[in-house]
Amino acid sequence: MNYVLVTVLLGVKHYNLNNNSEVLINMGASGKERYMSIEQLKQEIPDFAKDIRLNVSNLFGNMAQSGLTETQFYGVALAVAYTLKDRRIIDAIKADGALYITAELDHAVQTAAALMAMNNIYYRAIHLAENKELASLPANLRMNGMINPGVPKADFELFALAVSAINGCGMCIHSHVKQLLEHELNKIAVQSVLRIAAVLNACSFALSQNEL
């Protein structure tokens, strides 16, 4: 018995066809790749997490009050999604933010997520060790991607803060908040980054319960 494997939104449907091929399809009517929107993603959140569903709605529905530009907002959200390794959220953000997420922004976001995956572990451990001699040693970690990330410095700091919030590095969070305030970003913008990280983390958790 042969099947064509078809992906429809989050679900996977099997169709019994008379051929010898197995094809993964994720296409819309236009023949282009089809991504779930934030609105569609929100509807997949289980009822036990209704508060999270409403928070996702408020987050993306009140972007103008976030203190962030659209590019910053979607960049922060995408940085969080990459860190969560949640393909559904990644795709939904890319679909909703298609007008703002350029190849350069996507590259910068992934650079921030990758570097923070390293830095958050190292500097959190250094901080928790509470050893002055250990803290005084050079990190000897290459971080050249932070020098010229291809986006404004403040934007990269926003992405790094979002990832650091997910990874729980207090030293990194303190450093990035300090840098952002020095770049004259207001506290509402900084708070919005933390809200995006918190809500999308909860969204990813709630969606994962559908798969257990």
From TrEMBL:
It is an enzyme of class 1 (oxidoreductase). GO terms for molecular function: disulfide oxidoreductase activity; hydroperoxide reductase activity; peroxiredoxin activity. The keyword Disulfide bond applies. Its EC number is 1.11.1.28. Residues 133-202 form the Carboxymuconolactone decarboxylase-like domain. The active site is at C169 (proton donor), C172 (cysteine sulfenic acid (-soh) intermediate). One of its GO terms (biological process) is cell redox homeostasis. It catalyses: N(6)-[(R)-dihydrolipoyl]-L-lysyl-[lipoyl-carrier protein] + a hydroperoxide = N(6)-[(R)-lipoyl]-L-lysyl-[lipoyl-carrier protein] + an alcohol + H2O. Disulfide bonds join C169-C172. The keyword Coiled coil does not apply. InterPro entries: AhpD, AhpD-like, AhpD_core, CMD-like. Belongs to the AhpD family. NCBIfam families: ahpD_dom. This is Alkyl hydroperoxide reductase AhpD. It comes from Legionella bozemanae. The lineage of its organism: Bacteria, Pseudomonadati, Pseudomonadota, Gammaproteobacteria, Legionellales. The gene is ahpD.
